[in-house]
Amino acid sequence: QVQLVESGGGLVQAGGSLRLSCAASGRTFSSYVMGWFRQAPGKEREFVAAITWRAGSEYYSNSVQGRFTISRDNAKNTMYLQMNSLKPEDTAVYYCNSDVRYTGTGAAPFGSWGQGTQVTVSS
Fold first, then answer.
1. Of 30, 69, 98, 105, which has the fewest beta carbons less than 10 angstroms from its beta carbon?
2. 22 closest CA partner among 74, 81, 65
3. What is the DSSP string of 20-72?
4. pLDDT, position 26
């Protein structure tokens, strides 16, 4: 059983930065792709970024490319999302997922979810 715990959300002004963390436990992640998704009020959950646990290859949605950076610390079993140049439209609950795969329609979550962390960007 994989357990994920997100942290680091908060309220920030537009143009500001936040760093989210996702602490994972319960299995070895070396063969997996982990990632971040977000859900804004009234909208579907959407893909944000993913990283291969072993090689550290990074993938981003078009909406965050160039502003967000995903990373991981293998020794700590922790994944991060550095969010810079935040915009009001980045406001959402951010979730990490333990197993992200690419399907015909894009990145999809197949693993466990954390409880989510709220990010609010004021204009």
1. 105
2. 81
3. EEEEEESS--TT-EEEEEEE-TTS--EEEEEEETTT--EEE-TTTTTTEEEEE
4. 84
The residue whose two tokens read 């072993």 is: 54
**Type of residue found at 12:** V
| CB-CB contact of 79 with 7 (8 Å) | no
C-alpha 37/C-alpha 59 separation (Å) is 12
For residues 13-26, average pLDDT: 96
Amino acid making up residue 61: S
How many residues would you count in the chain? 123
Torsion of CA 19, 11, 34, 41, to 10 degrees: -160
- Res. 31 pLDDT band, cuts 50 70 90: low
Mean pLDDT of the chain: 93
Cβ(4)–Cβ(17) below 8 Å: no
